[in-house]
Structure formats: C-alpha cells, structure tokens
Amino acid sequence: MTDLDFENWTCPLPLRDTPSIVMGHGGGGAMSAELVEHLFLPGFGAAAATGLGDSAVVTAGGARLAISTDSFVVKPMFFPGGSIGDLAVNGTVNDLAMSGATPLYLSTAFILQEGTALSELARIAEAMGAAATAAGVRLVTGDTKVVDSGSGDGVYINTTGLGVVADGVDIAAHRAAPGDAVLISGDIGVHGVAVMSCREGLEFGTAVRSDTAPLHGLVAAMIATGADLHALRDPTRGGVSASLNEIARAARVGVDLVERDLPVPPGVRDACSLLGLDPMQVANEGKLLAFVPAAQAGDVLAAMRAHPHGEDACRIGTVVSEHPGMVVARTALGGTRVINLPIGEQLPRIC
To answer: How far apart are CA 172 and CA 290, in angstroms?
Structure first.
C-alpha cells in the first residue's frame, strides 16, 4: 500500500495534525466535515456526488427517490425511552423525511461482536420490527457479520432507506433565505441526556427519556399546508448548533436566534450545567428544524402543534443576510454570542 502524503493535503486543522482517526471525526461537527471534504470526496473522485449529505434525492425511471444510509453505534444499546434497534429505524426514516420523502423500504446490516447475548440481539430485532411497523416501512434486505471478541462492542447496525418524493417538493439546505422563520418541533437535548443518564459513572438522577421517533408524518402535515418549506434538518449528532451552522453555510445566509426561546427542558438544562455541556450541541432523535418563509410560519406552526410529534413547536430565530455562514444568538442580557459548529462531539457513542 502506498503511504499517504499528509504534508500535501490541503485540509485545515485539526485534520492535518491528526494522521489517525479520533472520536471527534464521528461527531457530526467540523472534524466530520473536514473528513468528508478533504479525504472522502477527493478519494471518491468523479464517482462522488457533491456534498455527500444525510440523504439525496435522485431520479430513476421518472420517479423522484430519496436515499439515505446511517450507522448506529450507541452505547449502551438500551437506554431510557428506546434502544439501538428503534433508533436505527427512526434515524434513517427521519433522514429521508428531511428531504420531504415518504419512506418506504429499509435495509438492515448488523456487525455483531462474538459473545453478544442472543437475548439482547432478540430484543434489538423486536424493537426494530416494532419501529418499522409504527413508521409504515418494510425491512426488505440485510446482512450479518461477526467480529472477534474485543474487536467490536456488542451490536452495530447500518440501515439504508428508500423513499419517494412528490412532485413540487423541493426541500434542501441551500434554499434557506433571508426572512425565513426558524422553527423547532420541541424540546432539545433529551436524547443525549437520556443516553448519558444510564452510562456508568454518569448517573445524575434525571428522568429524561429519549425522544426517538419517526418524523415523516409531521413533515407530511407541514407540506400539506401548502407552505414552501425551504429546509428541514433533524439535529442529531452535533445537535441544533451543528444543523443550523450547516444550513447557514450551505445557503450562505446568517441565522439570528433568540436564546430564551430555545426549548431546553429543566432536566436537560440541569444535566448540561452539571457536566459543562451546551444543550445546543447535544443530540436529538425525534426533533426537526424548519426554515420557512415568515409569512407562512404561522400556518406551519399550527400544523406542527396539531401533530403528536410537534405539540411543543415554536419559533426560535430568523434568517438574515448579515454575517453569512454564521449563527448568532441574542442572550437574555441583551448581548450576542456566536454559535459555532462543534469541532467534534461532546458525547461520543450516543447515536
């Protein structure tokens, strides 16, 4: 194998100073973006589609199809409110939904560590089946591999999803525009805190449960209003901070938030204060961000609040032409602070 010439890479820090993979490369923040931009895309060459986002809309035989793939390595595999099984289904369903697609089919691939209890694997399979049934998708193909004891960590799952996108639906990050209202479907940070709450050494007595849920029904209700939904994103790895920054950069716009309007529940706020974490960077698995024209925001909010997964929806900010590519929050004291794209991840192995 030819040695890689790190010195001639054109990537910024910290990737250049990190010749080996570190946990931050999987966190959905700046290090993940650098890995895609400066290693994967050049390596894939002409075969790569621009961006390699969470999902893509392609045309085949006249049909508009959405496709997405995701891998799940959450630790522990079972946590308050869910498990790696339902997370694997809902996570891919939601990536499809953020393109405005109706999810139809999923593949399932398992990497199992030798010695994993069959009873645990059965619980995971049952959770996947129940989640797929609830979401209205079929599990149509899959694969299983086993690695030596000590080479993995229980169960890793990959799911790939396929869905259809209706004519006239055009939802993409680059469409966010000045004047758009920024909406969120409910409380943030609950999934990450739920996973933390049951990890060894991180018990802090919170009753927070994961928000893992399929969101395509909520998106369908939003589309049914007739509003021109510009951009949607489910803020998983890297949380709300990462998602807002990614959209701001893709659309070359600024985002102004009102910090007191961010729906952070007391349990999440207390846990993050205790551990020195930013709730905006904690993962969610059943929430979405929406960028919609301000004149249509009222109708969209009403539709969201009428749906079980959007009952606590609210507006948290506005898209502006100033400071393109940046997210800024107005604090309770009247000042402002920049909400940066996370470098890596505050909490590894949570999705």
So the answer is: 11
